[in-house]
Amino acid sequence: MKYVLRAIPLLLFGAVGVVLIVFWLFGIPWRVGGAPQQPVDFWHTIHVQVVRMDCLFCHRGADQGAAATVPAVEQCMFCHSVITGSGQAGAEIAKVRAVWAQQQPIDWIRVHQMPDHVRFAHEPHVRAGYQCATCHGDVGSMQTVTQVRSLRMGDCVSCHKANNGPTDCFKCHY
Amino acid sequence: MTLTRREFLQAVAASTAGAVAFTGCAAPGSVREFQIQSSARLPESTLPGQDSWYASLYRDGGAGLGVIVRIVNGRAQKLEGNPDYPVNLGRLSARAQAAVQELYHPDRLAGPLRLSGVRGSGQFQAISWEEGLNELVRQLRDLAGRNQAGSALLVMESERGHRALLAERFARSYGAQLAKFEPLDRRASVREATRRVFGFDQIPEFDVAGARYVLSFGADFLGTWLSPVHYGWAYGQLRQGWPDTRGRLVQVEPRMSQTGSVADEWVPVQPGAEGILALSIAQALAASGKADQRALAALTGNAGAAALDAFNPESTASVTGVSAEHVTRIARELGEVRPALVIGGDAAGAHTNGTLNLVAIYALNLLVGNVGAAGGIRPNPPSPLTDLSQPAPSASFADWRRLLDDMRGGRVNLLMVHRANPVYGLPAAIDPREAVGRVPFVVSFSSFMDETTAMADLVLPDHHFLEDWGDDVPDPGPGYQIVGFQQPVVVPQLNTRSFANLLLTVANELGGEVARALPWGSLKDALQQAAQELRGLNRGSVPAGGVEAYWTSLLQQGGWWDTASAGAPPEAGGTARLPTQPPLPAFEGTAQEYPFFLHVFPSAALGTGEMAHLPWLQGLPDPNTTVVWRTWVEVNPKTAADLSLTEGDVVAVESPAGSIQAPVYVYPAIRPDVVAMPLGQGHTAYGRYASNRGANPLDILAPRSDAETGTLAWAATRVRLRKTGERLTRLPKFEGNVTPFVPENIPMVLKPGQQEAH
After folding, report:
1. For B17, which of A13, A99, A109 is closest by C-beta distance?
2. Where would I find the H helices in B106-201?
3. What pLDDT was estimated at residue A29?
4. How far is B334 from chain A (nearest CA, A)?
């Protein structure tokens, strides 16, 4: 009995250690659960593959500044003041129209976020010609957006090194 | 079961590791951190998180500063000075910085109101703009229909630019009276003096920047007088702009102001004797042969230096409190250093002999021959927009007494008030509240429930300046022509309407003469027309271009100016003559009963009370005393010792006109026979931060006025101090309360034999 009791904390410790090692080896993002449930179930699939909208049409800041930004509800209403949809899609569109009627904002759960000590700017990357999909994956085929690349420092630096990008610390940490 | 120490430690280690590792599995503790918001609406030109800067104007108590406003996501975040605007050249005052707090103030009136209870009860009900406008039009039509248009009175601040033009034309065409309210009449007294001495229509540019010697009588030009931000920049030039010397500043005043605290010399003159001191300096200048002979002849009616004999420094020393040696030395410096500049204002002009004082002071400039020259008195040319050149002057204190009598006598049936608070800002001795209470119908266009608005029957709140159009011809200008432009930088936050547009709408409704006098659809239209006029001049700072391009460039810059358009001194010059006998001041109260002169001054943060609703400014330490959030009375240390007063003792300051209470602040830089109090507090309305805080010295001011112009003689009151027995445990001030942190085991001062701790 004594040996079983003594083993429990060691087993726990071991299990945690295994999990940590696996995470590290597979580069799994630190935040577990990468596809959060959004207040409105927005499908990129329809908008990109069917309507064939460009990323920059909504994420207007990507070639202009640091943040790619999400569009205002007003922008959704450009089309959805007319397109009401049907079925489950209709229900989600109705949510957006209700929010607009109340002149309220939509608070999305962020999927991609850098820690506070990293300053990432979209503009130089987009202007250099890199596709959004390079870091964000094939968002056009995602019903719910998930993070597919680790986007940890090693990930960034290896790509910078391979493409003659700056590797000076102060480029991103200032 | 027994637990060994080793097992315990292992268990602890495992639990800790697990605790740390598994926090990653939980949802983030603060959900907010991982949210990103889609605003409901955002203009297409705006990106979230990106800022844009727009140029506009901020009035700042009449200085007229150019500002640039940082807008992020449609919200105004910060004001900075417009680096190109000639008045302030990128600098800004604390009051202007706080103006953005006014935009989002919780006490801003959200929409039109109608009085629903008894006047003064504070009971209002919200109404629609249609109802409000209809009511106003109805009142105006009724009066006009009964041939009583002259019993309508429009009161506004000392407005300039197109807003003033619209109001003046409205009043003139309708037949109403117009009265501009300038607290303390400070500009009016300077304007009269410079007109008499130099023949100018406008307040000139006092070229502090170009001078090597500045002698200022009472004018707190670095604090609150006329255009302090501009003079602040100029002061830097005075001190450090010369390669060979550091410019010199001498400040003459009974109580050391902000300007006095940076001056090389502070001369504590007897209150009211500033003119005699100036004449004394003139006599010494003339006697030493340093005075300009032609000017001396003109000022003395060709009698020459002999006319000033009564003012020789020995005879005037007892009256002015300044010794003969001191006067002679100042006169010598003034005579030798070039360029030299003499200015005067504030308390020096606030006596019953105020105009005479200022005339004597400004005449010194003629004697040193600096008119029209660099470092001297530079005239401001009239505006290229002739309509805006001569805004109606503000009503003097004498005019206000007459107006209040009219109100009491039933000769004012409709009172409309815009950006003025006469119920608070006029001395209580003439009882403005009671007079306004007699007016049958009062309309206020204020954004805040101030004392005057609390007496209103109808409130039609105006936009904040950041939400509105406008323009300005700065007074005093920088010595050349300038027209500043103000543009809205945020969407109106509340259900308010621009006062100027309201006037235009009302004029349109009234029709006839009034509608013809105000042909524009909106203030913006009037401004665009003015811009076209400026474009037609083919000169100035805005690059030439098509109509649209010119308008855009004009707004980007914040205005139009032409540095080449300097004003010329008028041929005729001034008509002033120096007196041969001393111009003596009169005071309310006898020296026996009221031993002290009361010196009130506009507070650096709160001005004359119009900024008391902003907590940022309430919390701004006074530059001389560091007191915040209340009124205080400054007492000389010797006086305090004689009266057994210490800091924090609450005294009643009693004048023949009334009594208020304030805590004592022992202030060494004040004459022993003078006590000083800041203006700005003592509001009974005006929001949560201003109400019922401190005391209003205007409540005890004697209703005296300048003998020549009728402006308020706000330095002509004598007071006595009476201990109330109460004291504050601690006066809320910054100085002396921030003690250095001293850990007990590391002493700041080592006693002999003590070793330093490591």
Report:
1. A13
2. 129-145, 161-174, 186-198
3. 47
4. 55
